[in-house]
């Protein structure tokens, strides 16, 4: 979940500085148990797992030996006590020998790496079995209702996320792409997690925990928020999107990509 630039004091290595925006991240980005099951199933019971861009440790399997790699000191400091400390490092230069792990994972992170293809190739290099990438499909990001109120936020997200095709090409092997339904009460507060709870995006902390908001000038973000607040207060949002409040899951842009080597790893 962390980024992967090297010129900020925090150590964040992508295009967002988690020393600035990451302080309250773990309060808003709690792993959702339903999404966690999807990730765990994709890891296939692996005994050793490397989590790249691990952030605060969301979705790490607790029944495996996990080595977490995270460049941001702010994010490493937010790992809960029951998880092993993360090592400082970036996806593009993983400090492990070939085939060191049974499986590899990265969640909500690949879009923040300085060279996504290089990082994905590194994940494949150090992994004998499945490489699991949870990300958003940029072709679907702008379909979310937030684009009506905060277009530059989702335009930024769509620009930053690598395409599904680019990810599968970098990983090689046999790849599957599975849409991940987003529950209405999702505890992992990325933008689409609030599809049925637009009021949550009026909270500055919730917005700060979605890194795309940090690329929008503050005065524009304030205008976007005011527009959304007005639409909610006037009933305009509910008139247009209110049926989403009754929808238990959203089929949005969230996808899980799983690659296994051609030699037939599980």
TrEMBL record:
Domain Methyltransferase type: 51-128
GO molecular function: S-adenosylmethionine-dependent methyltransferase activity
Top-level taxon of origin: Bacteria
Pfam families in alphabetical order: Methyltransf_11
Protein name stated in the entry: Methyltransferase type 11 domain-containing protein
Protein's organism: Actinacidiphila reveromycinica
